Amino acid sequence: MTDATSHARPGLLANWLFIVAALVVAIVTVGGITRLTESGLSITEWKPLLGALPPLSQADWQAEFELYQRIPEYQQINGPAGMDLEAFKSIYWWEWIHRQLGRVIGLALAVPLIVFAIRRMIPQGYFWRLFALLALVGLQGSFGWWMVASGLETRTDVSHFRLAIHLCTALILLGGLIWTALDLRRLAAGHAKPAVLTALAAWTGVILFAQLLLGAWVAGLNAGLASDSWPLMQGRLIPEFDLSQGLFWAVTHDPFLIHWMHRWWAWVAVAALIIMARKVKALDRRVSIAIHSAFGLQILLGIATVMTGVDFHLAVLHQLVGALLVAAYIWGAHVLGRAR
User: Fold this and answer.
1) CA-to-CA distance for 9 and 120, rounded, in angstroms?
2) What secondary structure does DSSP assign to 149-194, as a single string?
3) Which pLDDT tens digits describe the chain residue by residue (340 residues)?
């Protein structure tokens, strides 16, 4: 099924994976909108097949609303605030769109993969890589429901740890899609050896991952609202934060400290990306420009998001450009790995 034959079409498969990667960027962006509009708990059941259909009648809408009225978010926050059925619909649609994009991504990977495998169009050594990406999509869907479930019984919000796992898995999937697509594109050009991950790219990736993890915690804890000034917080370089339960608890739970870490670890990530981009520039100047553009815009959007009290549009753009920064990093890491 995966033998290298004259039927292999690495260029076609590369284009397919780039399209799926674009869908992942879209779902990450919609996920940001879902978070900012507090829509994530509006659908309280996980129905992988039947859930693809939205409510089709007034009775269906009322049934969904009644399910939502049973959870703490409605009982403690939105109910007392006067949420009615029409207001519920506005948050429901964002979560529904987010879940539909997940289904589309799964189908966009699974159906072509089956067709390409049957028609022997997959180059040797790539079937299991592609299957692993498909499995990661399924795992991501499970993580999504696991995240939602954390906010259905006792909490008024989802666990920021589970949200971080859900987001970071999506970004790992994005990276895997782009890396594999770039390998396939090079194979189509006559370069059979896949790229490898260099030490510089690996360390840069670890630093960038830490920043993305902190960003997910900021989102999960609404820690972006901890300060609307920059570079100081509360008029201080280091804000007051809660150490009553120990430093580890503060580092992983206190919104003021996590906000502070996210804004300043960003510069460590910038330094690492600059070093990496300088190495990449000698090999492909376009990639260096992409990396610099992505992190430069991301820094500006992050500062603007803070100073506007988490303006909705700026916050959404911040999440979108974060995904694009991951894409640029993967591109750069791949270029470095080709040179060996």
Assistant:
1) 9
2) HTTSSS-SS--HHHHHHHHHHHHHHHHHHHHHHHHHHHHHTT--SP
3) 444 445 778 999 999 999 999 999 999 999 999 999 999 999 998 887 777 889 999 999 999 999 999 999 999 999 999 999 999 999 999 999 999 999 999 999 999 999 999 999 999 999 999 999 999 999 999 999 999 999 998 998 999 999 999 999 999 999 999 999 999 999 998 888 899 999 999 999 999 999 999 999 999 999 999 999 999 998 899 999 999 999 999 999 999 999 999 999 999 999 999 999 999 999 999 999 999 999 999 999 999 999 999 999 999 999 999 999 999 999 999 999 986 5
Please state at what angle helix 312-338 crosses helix 160-188, rounded to 10 degrees.
Answer: 40
Query: What residues contact 247, with CB distance under 8 A and at least 6 apart?
Result: none
Q: Within 10 A of 271 (CB to CB), how many other CB atoms are there? A: 12
pLDDT 10s digits, 323-340: 999 999 999 999 999 865
Cα-flanking dihedrals φ and ψ of residue 197, to 5°? -85, 115
DSSP 50: G
Residue 125: helix, strand or coil by DSSP? Answer: coil
Pick the closest to residue 204 from 294, 274, 300, 288 (CA basis). 274
Q: Strand, coil or helix: what is 11?
A: helix
φ, ψ for residue 31, nearest 5 deg: -60, -40
Which positions ≥6 away from 264 have C-beta within 8 Å? none
DSSP 52: G
Residue 309 burial by Cβ neighbours in a 10 Å radius (0-12, 13-18, 19+): exposed
If one counts every other C-beta atom within 10 angstroms of the C-beta of residue 94, the result is: 20
User: What letter would DSSP give residue 224?
Assistant: G
Which residue in 220, 269, 17 sits closest to 130, CA to CA?
A: 17
CA proximity to 2, closest of 135, 113, 106: 113
